[in-house]
């Protein structure tokens, strides 16, 4: 259980919108009419089969009973699948479709799909939109998303 110590947290994008679950999708919204919305607890578990230097993590919701997945198609689609984070952690499979490389940007982190290099978790500035994947072009400056309207930096805040 040492792995999971401090692994439960709330995830906010760099515009400080909180992720929450609605209709089996992770959406993000900021302060709503002055009320703080209850964020979804995100469980973060390392993927032990991939190179630890790349900080491979599996992101789960609902107490780890569902995981964020990029799917198995050529073009990645972000969705929640009913797979247990701990089963993926214990298992010997690479589970790349469920894995993101966590790029540490100092205070924030960016998350690159392990199965689809160059695709990052991102949010749009508008409220109540789902978290999605955004492809970073080869020629853009490193760390700069292709489209200014997307946010690829996320904060983690420990759950109490």
UniProtKB/TrEMBL annotation:
Compartment list: Secreted
Pfam family, one: IL1
Listed GO MF terms: cytokine activity; interleukin-1 receptor binding
GO biological process: antifungal humoral response; cellular response to lipopolysaccharide; inflammatory response to antigenic stimulus; negative regulation of cytokine-mediated signaling pathway; negative regulation of interleukin-17 production; negative regulation of interleukin-6 production; negative regulation of type II interferon production
Assigned keywords, A-Z: Secreted
Cellular compartments per GO CC: extracellular space
InterPro entries: IL-1_fam, IL-1RA/IL-36, IL1/FGF
Transmembrane segments: none
CDD domains: beta-trefoil_IL36RA
Origin: domain of life: Eukaryota
Similarity comment: Belongs to the IL-1 family.
PANTHER family, sorted: INTERLEUKIN-1 FAMILY MEMBER (PTHR10078), INTERLEUKIN-36 RECEPTOR ANTAGONIST PROTEIN (PTHR10078:SF32)
Full protein name: Interleukin-1
Species: Jaculus jaculus (Lesser Egyptian jerboa)
Gene name per UniProt: Il36rn
């Amino acid at each position: 259980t040492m792995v999971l110590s401090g692994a439960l947290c709330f995830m906010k994008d760099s515009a400080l919108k909180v992720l929450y679950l609605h209709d089996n999708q992770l959406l993000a919204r900021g302060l709503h009419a002055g009320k703080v919305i209850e964020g979804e607890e995100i469980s973060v578990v390392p993927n032990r089969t991939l190179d630890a230097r790349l900080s491979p993590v599996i992101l789960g919701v609902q107490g780890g009973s569902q995981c964020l997945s990029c799917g198995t198609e050529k073009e990645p689609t972000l969705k929640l699948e009913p797979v247990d984070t701990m089963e993926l952690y214990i298992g010997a499979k690479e589970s790349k479709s469920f894995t993101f490389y966590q790029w540490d940007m100092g205070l924030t982190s960016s998350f690159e799909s392990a199965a689809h290099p160059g695709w990052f978790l991102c949010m749009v500035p508008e409220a109540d939109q789902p978290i999605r994947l955004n492809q970073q072009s080869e020629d853009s400056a490193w760390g700069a998303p292709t489209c200014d309207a997307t946010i690829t930096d996320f904060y983690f805040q420990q759950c109490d």
